[in-house]
Q: What sequence folds into this?
Protein backbone atom coordinates (compact mmCIF):
# COMPACT_ATOMS: atom_id res chain seq x y z
CA UNK A 1 0.00 0.00 0.00
CA UNK A 2 1.32 3.45 -0.89
CA UNK A 3 2.13 5.89 1.92
CA UNK A 4 -0.58 8.45 2.70
CA UNK A 5 1.58 11.28 1.33
CA UNK A 6 1.74 9.50 -2.03
CA UNK A 7 -2.06 9.47 -2.16
CA UNK A 8 -2.37 13.19 -1.42
CA UNK A 9 -1.01 14.36 -4.75
CA UNK A 10 -1.94 17.91 -5.60
CA UNK A 11 -0.14 18.14 -8.94
CA UNK A 12 -0.91 15.67 -11.68
CA UNK A 13 1.63 13.85 -13.81
CA UNK A 14 0.46 15.79 -16.85
CA UNK A 15 1.42 19.07 -15.14
CA UNK A 16 4.79 17.94 -13.76
CA UNK A 17 6.82 15.51 -15.82
CA UNK A 18 10.32 15.83 -14.34
CA UNK A 19 11.31 16.91 -10.85
CA UNK A 20 14.92 17.92 -10.21
CA UNK A 21 15.92 17.89 -6.54
CA UNK A 22 18.74 20.35 -5.84
CA UNK A 23 19.51 23.81 -7.16
CA UNK A 24 23.26 23.55 -7.62
CA UNK A 25 25.36 23.23 -10.76
CA UNK A 26 24.21 19.74 -11.80
CA UNK A 27 20.62 20.42 -10.76
CA UNK A 28 20.30 23.51 -12.93
CA UNK A 29 22.01 21.79 -15.83
CA UNK A 30 19.70 18.78 -15.52
CA UNK A 31 16.59 20.96 -15.36
CA UNK A 32 17.64 23.00 -18.39
CA UNK A 33 18.52 19.86 -20.34
CA UNK A 34 15.20 18.23 -19.44
CA UNK A 35 13.16 21.31 -20.35
CA UNK A 36 14.95 21.78 -23.65
CA UNK A 37 14.58 18.08 -24.49
CA UNK A 38 11.01 17.49 -23.41
CA UNK A 39 9.20 20.81 -23.23
CA UNK A 40 7.10 21.98 -20.29
CA UNK A 41 6.65 20.32 -16.94
CA UNK A 42 10.08 20.56 -15.31
CA UNK A 43 10.22 21.62 -11.67
CA UNK A 44 13.45 22.31 -9.81
CA UNK A 45 13.20 22.13 -6.01
CA UNK A 46 15.93 23.77 -3.92
CA UNK A 47 15.73 23.47 -0.15
CA UNK A 48 17.52 26.75 0.56
CA UNK A 49 16.70 30.29 -0.51
CA UNK A 50 20.04 30.60 -2.34
CA UNK A 51 20.41 28.36 -5.41
CA UNK A 52 23.82 28.00 -7.10
CA UNK A 53 25.67 28.82 -3.88
CA UNK A 54 28.70 26.69 -4.77
CA UNK A 55 28.87 28.16 -8.25
CA UNK A 56 29.07 31.64 -6.74
CA UNK A 57 31.80 30.58 -4.28
CA UNK A 58 33.91 28.59 -6.74
CA UNK A 59 37.35 29.82 -7.66
CA UNK A 60 37.37 32.51 -5.02
CA UNK A 61 34.24 34.07 -6.52
CA UNK A 62 35.50 33.78 -10.11
CA UNK A 63 33.97 30.34 -10.86
CA UNK A 64 36.39 27.79 -12.29
CA UNK A 65 33.88 26.57 -14.89
CA UNK A 66 35.90 23.61 -16.12
CA UNK A 67 39.40 22.56 -17.18
CA UNK A 68 41.01 23.17 -20.55
CA UNK A 69 39.01 21.16 -23.12
CA UNK A 70 42.19 20.79 -25.20
CA UNK A 71 43.34 18.19 -22.67
CA UNK A 72 42.60 14.78 -24.24
CA UNK A 73 39.79 12.90 -22.50
CA UNK A 74 42.05 9.99 -21.42
CA UNK A 75 44.27 12.51 -19.61
CA UNK A 76 41.29 14.56 -18.43
CA UNK A 77 39.67 11.66 -16.56
CA UNK A 78 42.94 10.81 -14.78
CA UNK A 79 42.24 13.89 -12.63
CA UNK A 80 39.41 12.02 -10.87
CA UNK A 81 40.49 9.99 -7.83
CA UNK A 82 37.09 8.30 -7.98
CA UNK A 83 35.22 7.96 -11.28
CA UNK A 84 38.06 8.17 -13.79
CA UNK A 85 37.25 4.93 -15.61
CA UNK A 86 33.49 5.44 -15.57
CA UNK A 87 33.56 9.05 -16.85
CA UNK A 88 35.63 8.31 -19.92
CA UNK A 89 32.62 7.12 -21.94
CA UNK A 90 30.25 9.98 -21.01
CA UNK A 91 32.94 12.60 -21.69
CA UNK A 92 33.66 11.01 -25.07
CA UNK A 93 30.18 10.13 -26.30
CA UNK A 94 27.61 12.13 -24.31
CA UNK A 95 28.77 15.57 -23.15
CA UNK A 96 32.46 16.32 -22.93
CA UNK A 97 34.68 19.31 -22.16
CA UNK A 98 34.37 20.75 -25.69
CA UNK A 99 30.57 20.50 -25.40
CA UNK A 100 30.58 22.31 -22.06
CA UNK A 101 32.71 25.11 -23.47
CA UNK A 102 30.40 25.49 -26.47
CA UNK A 103 27.32 25.44 -24.21
CA UNK A 104 28.46 28.30 -22.01
CA UNK A 105 29.70 30.38 -24.92
CA UNK A 106 26.32 29.92 -26.62
CA UNK A 107 24.72 31.30 -23.44
CA UNK A 108 26.85 34.44 -23.69
CA UNK A 109 29.60 33.45 -21.24
CA UNK A 110 32.94 34.32 -22.81
CA UNK A 111 35.60 32.01 -21.39
CA UNK A 112 39.37 32.18 -20.96
CA UNK A 113 41.88 29.43 -20.26
CA UNK A 114 44.64 30.33 -17.82
CA UNK A 115 48.20 29.01 -17.88
CA UNK A 116 47.44 26.20 -15.43
CA UNK A 117 44.50 24.97 -17.54
CA UNK A 118 41.68 26.37 -15.41
CA UNK A 119 38.84 27.94 -17.38
CA UNK A 120 37.09 31.07 -16.05
CA UNK A 121 34.60 33.56 -17.41
CA UNK A 122 36.38 36.55 -18.96
CA UNK A 123 34.59 38.73 -16.40
CA UNK A 124 36.33 36.88 -13.52
CA UNK A 125 32.94 36.96 -11.81
CA UNK A 126 31.05 33.82 -10.80
CA UNK A 127 27.82 35.77 -11.07
CA UNK A 128 28.28 35.67 -14.86
CA UNK A 129 27.99 31.89 -14.81
CA UNK A 130 25.15 31.80 -12.27
CA UNK A 131 23.19 34.39 -14.25
CA UNK A 132 23.63 32.39 -17.46
CA UNK A 133 22.26 29.25 -15.79
CA UNK A 134 19.38 31.21 -14.28
CA UNK A 135 18.48 32.82 -17.62
CA UNK A 136 18.69 29.51 -19.46
CA UNK A 137 16.40 27.83 -16.93
CA UNK A 138 13.88 30.65 -17.14
CA UNK A 139 13.95 30.69 -20.94
CA UNK A 140 13.42 26.92 -21.04
CA UNK A 141 10.39 27.21 -18.77
CA UNK A 142 11.85 25.52 -15.70
CA UNK A 143 9.72 26.14 -12.59
CA UNK A 144 12.36 26.95 -9.95
CA UNK A 145 11.07 26.75 -6.38
CA UNK A 146 13.64 27.92 -3.84
CA UNK A 147 13.01 27.15 -0.19
CA UNK A 148 11.04 23.98 -0.96
CA UNK A 149 12.97 21.19 0.75
CA UNK A 150 12.10 17.69 -0.40
CA UNK A 151 11.13 15.48 2.52
CA UNK A 152 10.28 12.24 0.73
CA UNK A 153 10.24 10.56 -2.68
CA UNK A 154 8.06 7.51 -3.32
CA UNK A 155 8.31 5.29 -6.38
CA UNK A 156 4.74 4.60 -7.54
CA UNK A 157 3.41 1.38 -8.96
CA UNK A 158 2.83 2.88 -12.40
CA UNK A 159 6.48 3.80 -12.81
CA UNK A 160 6.10 7.39 -11.70
CA UNK A 161 7.09 9.16 -8.49
CA UNK A 162 5.49 11.18 -5.72
CA UNK A 163 7.78 13.93 -4.45
CA UNK A 164 6.83 15.59 -1.16
CA UNK A 165 8.07 19.17 -0.72
CA UNK A 166 6.79 22.52 0.50
CA UNK A 167 3.64 21.07 2.01
CA UNK A 168 2.47 19.36 -1.20
CA UNK A 169 3.20 16.23 -3.17
CA UNK A 170 4.10 16.38 -6.85
CA UNK A 171 3.48 13.47 -9.17
CA UNK A 172 6.00 13.10 -11.98
CA UNK A 173 7.37 10.60 -14.45
CA UNK A 174 11.08 11.01 -13.61
CA UNK A 175 13.24 12.39 -10.82
CA UNK A 176 16.79 13.75 -10.90
CA UNK A 177 18.62 13.74 -7.57
CA UNK A 178 21.19 16.55 -7.68
CA UNK A 179 21.63 17.30 -4.00
CA UNK A 180 25.43 17.31 -3.80
CA UNK A 181 26.83 16.15 -0.47
CA UNK A 182 23.76 17.24 1.50
CA UNK A 183 22.76 14.59 4.07
CA UNK A 184 19.17 14.83 2.86
CA UNK A 185 20.23 13.66 -0.59
CA UNK A 186 21.91 10.59 0.86
CA UNK A 187 18.78 9.83 2.86
CA UNK A 188 16.56 10.18 -0.22
CA UNK A 189 18.82 7.91 -2.27
CA UNK A 190 18.81 5.34 0.54
CA UNK A 191 15.02 5.49 0.84
CA UNK A 192 14.80 4.51 -2.83
CA UNK A 193 17.01 1.46 -2.48
CA UNK A 194 20.55 2.76 -2.96
CA UNK A 195 23.32 2.38 -0.40
CA UNK A 196 25.45 5.54 -0.85
CA UNK A 197 28.84 5.71 0.77
CA UNK A 198 28.72 8.39 3.45
CA UNK A 199 30.62 11.52 2.35
CA UNK A 200 34.10 12.22 3.60
CA UNK A 201 36.38 15.16 2.76
CA UNK A 202 38.46 15.34 -0.39
CA UNK A 203 40.50 18.25 -1.74
CA UNK A 204 41.68 19.87 1.48
CA UNK A 205 44.83 21.45 2.88
CA UNK A 206 46.93 20.05 5.71
CA UNK A 207 47.50 21.49 9.16
CA UNK A 208 51.18 21.22 9.95
CA UNK A 209 52.00 22.47 13.46
CA UNK A 210 55.56 23.02 14.66
CA UNK A 211 57.51 22.40 11.46
CA UNK A 212 60.45 23.95 9.59
CA UNK A 213 57.82 25.97 7.70
CA UNK A 214 56.57 27.88 10.78
CA UNK A 215 56.40 31.62 10.15
CA UNK A 216 56.66 31.30 6.36
CA UNK A 217 52.97 31.84 5.52
CA UNK A 218 52.54 33.13 1.98
CA UNK A 219 55.74 31.56 0.70
CA UNK A 220 55.34 29.21 -2.24
CA UNK A 221 57.21 26.73 -4.39
CA UNK A 222 56.36 26.78 -8.08
CA UNK A 223 57.02 23.06 -8.37
CA UNK A 224 57.06 20.55 -5.52
CA UNK A 225 56.03 16.97 -4.81
CA UNK A 226 54.16 15.94 -1.69
CA UNK A 227 53.88 12.39 -0.43
CA UNK A 228 52.34 10.60 2.51
CA UNK A 229 54.87 8.70 4.56
CA UNK A 230 53.63 5.10 4.22
CA UNK A 231 53.47 2.63 7.07
CA UNK A 232 56.37 0.21 6.71
CA UNK A 233 57.18 -0.45 3.07
CA UNK A 234 53.66 0.13 1.75
CA UNK A 235 53.56 2.54 -1.17
CA UNK A 236 50.42 4.44 -2.08
CA UNK A 237 49.35 4.13 -5.71
CA UNK A 238 48.61 7.80 -6.28
CA UNK A 239 51.46 9.49 -4.48
CA UNK A 240 53.47 11.60 -4.58
CA UNK A 241 51.45 14.43 -6.12
CA UNK A 242 53.25 17.24 -7.89
CA UNK A 243 52.46 20.92 -8.46
CA UNK A 244 52.76 24.34 -6.82
CA UNK A 245 52.82 24.32 -3.01
CA UNK A 246 51.72 27.16 -0.73
CA UNK A 247 52.72 27.59 2.90
CA UNK A 248 49.77 28.82 4.97
CA UNK A 249 49.39 30.03 8.55
CA UNK A 250 48.21 26.54 9.48
CA UNK A 251 50.32 24.33 7.24
CA UNK A 252 50.47 23.58 3.51
CA UNK A 253 48.03 23.99 0.62
CA UNK A 254 48.20 24.58 -3.11
CA UNK A 255 47.69 22.06 -5.94
CA UNK A 256 50.29 19.54 -4.68
CA UNK A 257 48.63 19.29 -1.26
CA UNK A 258 45.07 19.39 -2.60
CA UNK A 259 45.71 16.65 -5.15
CA UNK A 260 47.34 14.43 -2.53
CA UNK A 261 44.35 14.89 -0.22
CA UNK A 262 41.99 13.94 -3.04
CA UNK A 263 43.76 10.82 -4.25
CA UNK A 264 44.40 9.57 -0.71
CA UNK A 265 41.11 10.77 0.79
CA UNK A 266 40.17 7.36 2.13
CA UNK A 267 43.62 6.61 3.58
CA UNK A 268 43.73 10.00 5.28
CA UNK A 269 40.24 9.53 6.71
CA UNK A 270 41.22 6.13 8.09
CA UNK A 271 44.33 7.69 9.66
CA UNK A 272 42.24 10.32 11.45
CA UNK A 273 43.95 13.09 9.43
CA UNK A 274 47.19 12.58 11.33
CA UNK A 275 50.50 11.38 10.01
CA UNK A 276 53.61 12.54 8.24
CA UNK A 277 54.10 14.16 4.85
CA UNK A 278 57.31 14.20 2.85
CA UNK A 279 58.05 17.35 0.87
CA UNK A 280 60.28 17.16 -2.20
CA UNK A 281 61.30 20.72 -3.08
CA UNK A 282 63.22 19.63 -6.19
CA UNK A 283 61.05 17.00 -7.92
CA UNK A 284 62.83 17.33 -11.27
CA UNK A 285 66.17 16.22 -9.78
CA UNK A 286 67.12 12.83 -8.40
CA UNK A 287 68.49 12.51 -4.84
CA UNK A 288 71.92 11.81 -6.29
CA UNK A 289 71.82 14.89 -8.52
CA UNK A 290 70.76 17.10 -5.60
CA UNK A 291 73.57 15.73 -3.41
CA UNK A 292 76.13 16.26 -6.19
CA UNK A 293 74.94 19.85 -6.70
CA UNK A 294 75.18 20.65 -2.98
CA UNK A 295 78.67 19.15 -2.63
CA UNK A 296 79.87 20.86 -5.80
CA UNK A 297 78.58 24.23 -4.62
CA UNK A 298 80.22 23.68 -1.21
CA UNK A 299 83.53 22.98 -2.91
CA UNK A 300 83.46 25.90 -5.37
CA UNK A 301 81.97 28.58 -3.08
CA UNK A 302 83.77 28.16 0.26
CA UNK A 303 83.52 31.83 1.28
CA UNK A 304 79.82 32.35 0.58
CA UNK A 305 77.32 32.39 3.43
CA UNK A 306 75.71 28.95 3.52
CA UNK A 307 72.32 30.15 4.83
CA UNK A 308 71.82 32.73 2.08
CA UNK A 309 73.46 31.16 -0.97
CA UNK A 310 72.96 27.76 -2.56
CA UNK A 311 72.83 25.97 -5.90
CA UNK A 312 69.01 26.08 -6.27
CA UNK A 313 67.66 29.55 -7.09
CA UNK A 314 64.10 28.16 -7.33
CA UNK A 315 64.01 27.77 -3.54
CA UNK A 316 63.11 31.06 -1.80
CA UNK A 317 65.86 32.42 0.44
CA UNK A 318 63.80 32.26 3.64
CA UNK A 319 62.96 28.62 2.99
CA UNK A 320 66.58 27.85 2.14
CA UNK A 321 67.61 29.15 5.56
CA UNK A 322 65.11 26.78 7.18
CA UNK A 323 66.59 23.85 5.31
CA UNK A 324 70.00 24.85 6.61
CA UNK A 325 68.58 24.99 10.13
CA UNK A 326 67.06 21.55 9.66
CA UNK A 327 70.47 20.20 8.60
CA UNK A 328 72.06 21.84 11.69
CA UNK A 329 74.35 24.19 9.78
CA UNK A 330 76.53 26.28 12.14
CA UNK A 331 75.29 29.83 12.78
CA UNK A 332 76.63 32.36 10.23
CA UNK A 333 78.57 29.57 8.55
CA UNK A 334 80.30 29.89 5.21
CA UNK A 335 80.24 26.86 2.98
CA UNK A 336 83.80 26.08 4.06
CA UNK A 337 82.46 25.54 7.60
CA UNK A 338 79.85 22.97 6.50
CA UNK A 339 80.87 19.34 6.92
CA UNK A 340 80.13 16.79 4.23
CA UNK A 341 77.79 15.03 6.67
CA UNK A 342 75.73 18.20 7.13
CA UNK A 343 75.74 18.83 3.39
CA UNK A 344 74.36 15.32 2.91
CA UNK A 345 71.67 16.05 5.50
CA UNK A 346 70.70 19.20 3.60
CA UNK A 347 70.45 17.31 0.29
CA UNK A 348 68.31 14.62 1.91
CA UNK A 349 65.95 17.23 3.39
CA UNK A 350 65.56 18.97 0.04
CA UNK A 351 64.24 15.71 -1.39
CA UNK A 352 62.22 14.49 1.61
CA UNK A 353 61.51 17.05 4.33
CA UNK A 354 59.34 15.41 7.01
CA UNK A 355 56.22 17.40 7.95
CA UNK A 356 54.01 15.99 10.70
CA UNK A 357 50.37 16.92 10.04
CA UNK A 358 47.46 16.98 12.45
CA UNK A 359 44.14 17.97 10.92
CA UNK A 360 42.80 19.50 7.73
CA UNK A 361 41.20 22.67 6.39
CA UNK A 362 38.78 23.21 3.53
CA UNK A 363 40.10 24.75 0.34
CA UNK A 364 38.98 28.38 0.74
CA UNK A 365 35.17 28.37 0.65
CA UNK A 366 34.95 25.21 -1.41
CA UNK A 367 34.15 21.81 0.05
CA UNK A 368 34.48 18.69 -2.08
CA UNK A 369 33.64 15.23 -0.80
CA UNK A 370 34.32 11.66 -1.78
CA UNK A 371 31.53 9.12 -1.35
CA UNK A 372 28.01 8.99 -2.71
CA UNK A 373 25.95 6.63 -4.83
CA UNK A 374 28.08 3.78 -6.16
CA UNK A 375 28.71 4.08 -9.90
CA UNK A 376 28.02 0.37 -10.37
CA UNK A 377 24.39 1.20 -9.53
CA UNK A 378 24.19 3.86 -12.29
CA UNK A 379 23.90 3.62 -16.08
CA UNK A 380 26.70 6.00 -17.01
CA UNK A 381 25.18 6.74 -20.44
CA UNK A 382 22.08 8.31 -18.92
CA UNK A 383 22.95 8.55 -15.20
CA UNK A 384 19.77 6.61 -14.51
CA UNK A 385 19.58 4.28 -11.54
CA UNK A 386 19.83 0.59 -12.35
CA UNK A 387 17.71 -0.10 -9.28
CA UNK A 388 14.89 2.42 -9.76
CA UNK A 389 13.84 3.17 -13.36
CA UNK A 390 13.18 6.86 -13.85
CA UNK A 391 15.46 7.94 -11.01
CA UNK A 392 18.62 9.77 -12.08
CA UNK A 393 21.61 10.74 -9.93
CA UNK A 394 24.07 13.54 -10.77
CA UNK A 395 26.98 15.64 -9.60
CA UNK A 396 28.51 15.23 -6.18
CA UNK A 397 25.83 12.81 -5.01
CA UNK A 398 27.65 10.30 -7.21
CA UNK A 399 30.80 8.65 -5.88
CA UNK A 400 32.87 10.90 -8.13
CA UNK A 401 35.30 13.66 -7.22
CA UNK A 402 38.04 15.47 -9.07
CA UNK A 403 41.14 17.42 -8.17
CA UNK A 404 41.21 21.20 -8.17
CA UNK A 405 41.02 22.90 -11.55
CA UNK A 406 37.40 22.69 -12.74
CA UNK A 407 37.05 18.90 -12.88
CA UNK A 408 34.23 18.68 -10.34
CA UNK A 409 32.09 21.14 -12.27
CA UNK A 410 32.72 19.16 -15.46
CA UNK A 411 31.18 16.12 -13.76
CA UNK A 412 28.17 18.29 -12.88
CA UNK A 413 27.72 19.56 -16.44
CA UNK A 414 28.04 16.11 -18.01
CA UNK A 415 25.90 14.16 -15.53
CA UNK A 416 23.29 16.93 -15.39
CA UNK A 417 23.02 17.15 -19.16
CA UNK A 418 22.70 13.39 -19.63
CA UNK A 419 20.29 12.89 -16.73
CA UNK A 420 18.03 15.76 -17.80
CA UNK A 421 17.79 14.53 -21.38
CA UNK A 422 17.14 10.95 -20.26
CA UNK A 423 14.50 12.02 -17.73
CA UNK A 424 12.70 14.08 -20.38
CA UNK A 425 12.78 11.16 -22.82
CA UNK A 426 11.23 8.89 -20.21
CA UNK A 427 8.55 11.47 -19.38
CA UNK A 428 7.64 11.79 -23.06
CA UNK A 429 7.56 8.02 -23.54
CA UNK A 430 10.46 8.06 -25.99
A:
Amino acid sequence: MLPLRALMIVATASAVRVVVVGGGASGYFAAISAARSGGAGVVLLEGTRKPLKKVLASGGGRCNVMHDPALPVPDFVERYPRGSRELRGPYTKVFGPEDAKAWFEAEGVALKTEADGRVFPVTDDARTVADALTRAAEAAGVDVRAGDAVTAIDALGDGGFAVSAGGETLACDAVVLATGSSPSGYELAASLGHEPKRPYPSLFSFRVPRSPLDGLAGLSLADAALDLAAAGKKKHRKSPQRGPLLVTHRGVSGPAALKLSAFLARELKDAGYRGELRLDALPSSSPGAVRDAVLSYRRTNPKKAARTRGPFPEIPRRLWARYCDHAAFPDDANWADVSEKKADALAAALKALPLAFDGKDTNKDEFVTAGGVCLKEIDMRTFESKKVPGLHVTGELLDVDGVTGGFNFMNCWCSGYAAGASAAARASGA
User: Anything to note?
Assistant: Confidence is low (pLDDT under 50) at residues 1-14. The longest strand covers residues 220-228. The CA atoms of residues 28 and 134 lie 8 Å apart.
